[in-house]
């Protein structure tokens, strides 16, 4: 089995192919904000592992509240971060009635704000709501094989029924990563992505 997997991975690298994953709206909470929402001393409850090592979906959910509407049962991803960040699609922002900038993950200075509600309380997040730029996670080995470097921008052709090319996709390189490209739900719907989908790195 390992030999088969290795052969498939080698073929993907030779073909400059990367698996595309769809990231629905979600929240990264600081430990302090998590406790304000769910109770002092509480910790995130592991539900299932995500593709990136060490990251997981928590059982807890929050409601996002904006001037125009709200989005219930929004996922929380763990582990806790230093600062709270809410990652949305453009369509989410329209429903909430907020302006969130298109940013790299972690770049939240001066970004959008909204209210978070949960069973144990609510908090006002003055900044932290962003529309995350599409990006790819690569190991150093994967980046080397693809001929890419950290923070480089590349174009990726989605191999779906509705052929689309995403331009200026940010490359992130870290030994802790697994080779994947991440896009939001709006982008996935536009490209007709459903289930396992590959993209070809151009250039």
From TrEMBL:
<keyword id="KW-0808">Transferase</keyword>
<dbReference type="GO" id="GO:0016747">
    <property type="term" value="F:acyltransferase activity, transferring groups other than amino-acyl groups"/>
</dbReference>
<dbReference type="GO" id="GO:0046872">
    <property type="term" value="F:metal ion binding"/>
</dbReference>
<dbReference type="GO" id="GO:0051144">
    <property type="term" value="P:1,2-propanediol catabolic process"/>
</dbReference>
<comment type="pathway">
    <text>Polyol metabolism; 1,2-propanediol degradation.</text>
</comment>
<dbReference type="Pfam" id="PF06130">
    <property type="entry name" value="PTAC"/>
</dbReference>
<keyword id="KW-0012">Acyltransferase</keyword>
<comment type="similarity">
    <text>Belongs to the PduL family.</text>
</comment>
<protein>
    <recommendedName>
        <fullName>Phosphate propanoyltransferase</fullName>
        <ecNumber>2.3.1.222</ecNumber>
    </recommendedName>
</protein>
<comment type="function">
    <text>Involved in 1,2-propanediol (1,2-PD) degradation by catalyzing the conversion of propanoyl-CoA to propanoyl-phosphate.</text>
</comment>
<dbReference type="InterPro" id="IPR008300">
    <property type="entry name" value="PTAC"/>
</dbReference>
<keyword id="KW-0479">Metal-binding</keyword>
<keyword id="KW-0862">Zinc</keyword>
């Amino acid at each position: 089995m390992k030999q088969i997997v290795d052969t498939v991975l080698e073929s993907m690298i030779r073909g400059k192919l990367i698996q595309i994953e769809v990231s629905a709206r979600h929240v990264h909470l600081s430990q302090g904000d998590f406790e304000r929402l769910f109770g002092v001393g509480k910790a995130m409850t592991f539900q299932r592992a995500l593709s990136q090592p060490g990251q997981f979906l928590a059982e807890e959910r929050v409601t996002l509240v904006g001037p125009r509407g709200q989005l219930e049962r929004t996922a929380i991803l763990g582990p806790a971060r230093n600062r709270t960040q809410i990652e949305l699609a453009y369509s989410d922002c329209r429903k909430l009635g907020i302006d969130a900038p298109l940013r790299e993950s972690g770049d939240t200075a001066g970004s959008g704000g909204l209210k978070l509600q949960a069973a144990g309380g609510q908090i006002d997040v003055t900044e932290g709501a962003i529309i995350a730029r599409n990006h790819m996670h690569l190991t150093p080995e994967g980046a080397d094989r693809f001929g890419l470097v950290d923070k480089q921008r590349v174009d990726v052709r989605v191999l779906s029924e509705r052929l689309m090319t995403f331009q200026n996709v940010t490359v992130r390189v870290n030994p802790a990563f697994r080779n994947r490209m991440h896009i939001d739900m709006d982008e996935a719907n536009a490209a007709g992505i459903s289930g396992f989908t590959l993209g070809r790195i151009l250039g």
